[in-house]
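Obj.: predict assembly geometry.
Materials: sequence records (below).
Method: joint structure prediction, all chains together.
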Amino acid sequence: MRNLIFFIYKYHVFFIFFLLEIVAFVILYRFNNYQKASFLNYTTGVSSNFYTGVSNTQEYFNLRRVNDSLQLENARLRSQQITSYYNNNISTSSINDTVYKQQYQYISAQVVNNSVTKRNNYITLNRGKNHGIEREMGVISESGIVGIVMNVSDHYCTVLSLLNSNCKISAKIKKTGAFGSLVWDGGNPKYAKLLDVNKHVPVHFNDLVITSNFSTIFPEGLPIGRVYDHSLDAGDNFHTIRIELFTDFSTVSTVYIIKNLFKQEQQTLEQTLPQDKK
Amino acid sequence: MILDLFTYLLKFIGIILLQILVVDNIELSSYINPYIYITFILTLPVTIRPWHLLILAFLCGAVIDSFSSTPGLHIAATVLLAYVRIHYLRFATTKEDLEGRIRPSMSKKGVVWFIFYCFSMTLVHHTFLFFLEIYGFSEFLSTMLRVVLSTLVTVLMIVIGQLLFYNTKSNHE
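Observations (raw structure tokens):
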């Protein structure tokens, strides 16, 4: 026993080091997985308050208020657009008095903190639980998609930016309907990659790339970007496609968070499917 | 002693603020992400207790993590840095340094010693950090480039900081 204590004492620096690294890795594994993050729900509140203070001093007070009212109006108009309604017209003889039922709601938000130069980038927005924001809601700017809500505190949320190695978005080429997944491979924040597009599908320069109808996060048909260049290596089954993104991540300041009112319903239904093929 | 604690606390807050308000917003390139907050760990006195150093490194990493939405990442890298520092300084300091309770700085140990110290420590920290960030070796070359460029910029910034803040004090400290 004495020997053991002596041993521990002799190497106590190493043991403390080892212990702290284990704690760090537990935090890393436990909370970095964006499916079950919760650590950030606590720290997001504190650091975002701080960042809001900073961004307040950076912006003109008056301009902000005018902007806010414009945004609200915009969000309301977007909510009324025909594309955010779900076609409920199942049979011609039905006596439903609502032909269209609203599926998507848009909530305007302001970017409080943002980065584009890291390998994994995150964005903080000034909307949270109190405004009805939940995890895994889509975020778009006026020009294209931005990312997916990751953590939510009372007044803020952090967004997994498209410029993040953990972010994979289902996309398709509008002309051919060929779908693939959109990822960012680091480097220039203006370009991303579209993977898994089959080689028999023709791809052309400037083809429009939009969100696909497979996700419960984004409505179908939101613009993402244009094909910038593409190549097909011999023996490869998939195209290598580079997309020029519509959203300019370095200047994005006003965004909309998309709330899918049917998401719960779709997911509950899909959970009843047998899980053996996973 | 209390005064010392107070100055270190101020220094800690100052360096963290510098990191998250200024350095994080410098958008030179996606390959250059300098992390100058490690200068706080690097310039603590050589006589500090090893376990104090490790705990401080843990706290320092935790603060940076909470401001950059990366739980655990900076903690792991900074604790490793502190551990490597303990062993590095065991070989790179003399008896006089320990008796004089000096801090590892440019004015005390000379330019070459300090730059070499800084460079090797920063390289350890950045290599670990960036590879942990992408979580694997799938983008080996681009991550390596990011490590080297960021290390050079970080060392440059730390050296400039040394020249700005510590040069005048050196004579009567």
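Conclusions so far: The interface with chain B takes residues 12-14, 16-17, 20-21, 23-29, 31-32, 37, 39-40, 43-44, 46-47, 50, 54, 115-120, 122, 124, 150-151, 158, 165, 185-189, 250 of chain A (CB under 8 Å).
To do: check interface contacts against the pulldown list.
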